[in-house]
């Protein structure tokens, strides 16, 4: 049967971690607990079984053999490729010896008990063709009663079994006895692991205590250094906080002053009204009235746009995100309808490539500001020549957890040299611009608040595409 004698080397020291014999390689280490740490599970079969446990198990197998009146009883241990006999019944003519190993064949009684993970009883293997080829039959061991033995983590340790050379219908009492003694062996394994862990922990504690003493000496100096560092950091933070408060104050002052300074156009409107009154008194009011009204309308329109941009900037900087479900196409249509009053907007074709059921999660107010600025800019700087067939196309799609939005037009486009500056505060890419220079800056800041990014692809004279990427 290819018997092989296997002997363990003894390990006498457990320095902070458990030493385990591993053939000719160096001992590996792993912590031991009753629940078996994951890092140790694959090395259970390398744990040494102490002599006192083997002696105890020897008494168990001798007791079973005497009570069941069988010639053989043993405790086995399973390894990856073979089975070892840990202890066997002391008899005048033993059939097996402790330390023997047998290659696994999927034919031994014990192998089948382990595969089933429950008690196995075979009254007479000679009457069952399944057992043909079982090496135990060569020794005339035709009856078997055995149970698998488990480590605390329910992995297989081996078996506890009794074998007979005659047909034997083992009784329920005998089965119960075998199970109870198997539980005793499993408790031994559990306590042995706990003992090894405690021994390892004791040594680890001694080492830790020595290190603790050394660390305590260093700790005093570190505390002093950290205290100095924390004081320095605290002073720095206080200084930065003062600067931040100053910056916020300046920003508030800027918004307040700018909104008031922009009232200057109202003065111009008032002057135009006075001129209109004078012309009316002279009898020539009708002649210049349309011109004056046009100039007033233009001033008021520009004034509203600038004040609106400043207010949008202030809101974006101060208001918290309010995320909600948004039907995106519906929002885009609403923004376009709000812009229908703009001049010559009727000459532009709007192409909304968004499904009516396309729902996103975002801040509705910030998203409206973004669309409002991008679409209104596309309207203002469009190429309205008849042969251009002017259009503005809005698209959106979700991909890899992101939302991609694009607003494209075939308008005037942006010169390459200007494209890196258009998102700066108060920057105007065109000398013909009457806006505040805040529109695209507000777009960039709003997108940043939504934890996204905005970019532009533009060819001067052919059009621009603004791309917004937002998380979803």
3D architecture notes:
The protein is of the alpha+beta class. The chain folds into 2 domains: 4-200, Beta-Lactamase (2-Layer Sandwich); 319-471, Histidine kinase-like ATPase, C-terminal domain (Heat Shock Protein 90), CATH 3.30.565.10. Helices cover 45% and strands 21% of the residues. It is built from 9 helices and 16 strands. The longest helix is centred in the middle third of the chain and has 90 residues, at 172-261. It is elongated, with a radius of gyration of 44 Å.
Please sum up the structure shown.
By secondary structure, the chain is of the alpha+beta class.
What class would the helix/strand composition place it in? Answer: alpha+beta
Order of helices and strands: EEEHHEEEHEEEHHHEHEEHEEHEE
The fourth-level CATH homologous superfamily of the largest domain is GAF domain
Output the CATH topology of the largest domain: Beta-Lactamase
Strand content: 15-25%
* Structural Rg: 44 Å
Number of helices: 9
Q: Gap between N and C termini, in Å?
A: 66 Å
Q: For this structure, what is the CATH class of the largest domain?
A: Alpha Beta
Strand line-up across the major sheet: 1-6-5-4-9-8-7
Spatial shape: elongated
- State the major sheet: 7 strands, antiparallel
Low-confidence stretches: 1-34
Give the number of domains: 2
């Amino acid at each position: 049967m290819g018997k092989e004698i296997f002997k363990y080397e003894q390990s006498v020291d457990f320095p902070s971690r458990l030493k385990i014999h591993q053939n000719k390689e160096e001992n590996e280490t792993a912590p031991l607990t009753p629940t078996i740490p994951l890092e140790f599970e694959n090395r259970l079969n390398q744990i040494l079984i102490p002599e006192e446990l083997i002696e105890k198990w020897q008494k168990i197998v001798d007791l079973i053999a005497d009570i069941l009146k069988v010639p053989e009883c043993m405790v086995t241990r399973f390894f990856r490729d073979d089975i070892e006999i840990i202890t066997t019944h002391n008899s005048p003519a033993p059939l097996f010896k402790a330390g023997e190993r047998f290659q696994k064949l999927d034919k031994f009684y014990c192998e089948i008990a382990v595969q089933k993970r429950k008690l196995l009883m075979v009254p007479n293997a000679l009457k069952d063709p399944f057992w043909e080829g079982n090496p135990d039959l060569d020794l005339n061991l035709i009856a078997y009663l055995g149970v698998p033995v488990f480590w605390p983590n329910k992995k297989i340790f081996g078996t506890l079994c009794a074998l007979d050379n005659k047909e034997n219908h083992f009784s329920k009492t005998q089965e119960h006895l075998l199970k109870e003694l198997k539980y005793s062996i499993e408790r031994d394994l559990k306590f042995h692991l706990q003992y090894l862990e405690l021994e390892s922990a004791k040594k680890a504690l001694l080492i830790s205590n020595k290190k603790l003493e050394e660390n305590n000496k260093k700790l005093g100096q570190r505390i002093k250094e950290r205290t100095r560092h924390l004081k320095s950091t605290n002073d720095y933070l206080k200084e930065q906080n003062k600067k931040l408060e100053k910056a916020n104050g300046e920003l508030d002052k800027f918004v307040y002053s700018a909104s008031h300074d922009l009232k200057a156009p109202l003065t111009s409107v008032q002057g135009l009204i006075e001129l209109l009154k004078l012309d009316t008194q002279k009898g020539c009011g009708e002649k210049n009235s349309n011109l004056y009204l046009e100039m007033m309308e233009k001033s008021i329109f520009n004034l509203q746009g600038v004040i609106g941009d400043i207010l949008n900037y202030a809101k974006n900087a101060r208001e918290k995100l309010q995320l909600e479900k948004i039907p995106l196409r519906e929002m885009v249509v609403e923004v376009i309808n709000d812009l229908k009053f703009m001049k010559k907007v009727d000459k532009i074709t709007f192409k909304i490539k968004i499904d009516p059921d396309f729902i996103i999660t975002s801040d509705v107010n910030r998203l409206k500001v973004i669309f409002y600025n991008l679409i209104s800019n596309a309207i203002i700087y469009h190429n309205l020549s008849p042969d251009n067939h002017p259009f503005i196309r809005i698209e959106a799609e979700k991909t890899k957890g992101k939302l991609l939005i694009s607003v494209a037009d075939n308008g005037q486009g942006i010169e390459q040299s200007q494209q890196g500056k258009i998102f700066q505060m108060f920057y105007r890419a065109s000398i013909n611009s009457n806006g505040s220079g805040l529109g695209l800056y507000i777009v960039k800041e709003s997108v940043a608040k939504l934890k996204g990014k905005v970019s532009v692809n533009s060819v001067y004279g052919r059009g621009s595409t603004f791309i917004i990427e937002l998380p979803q």
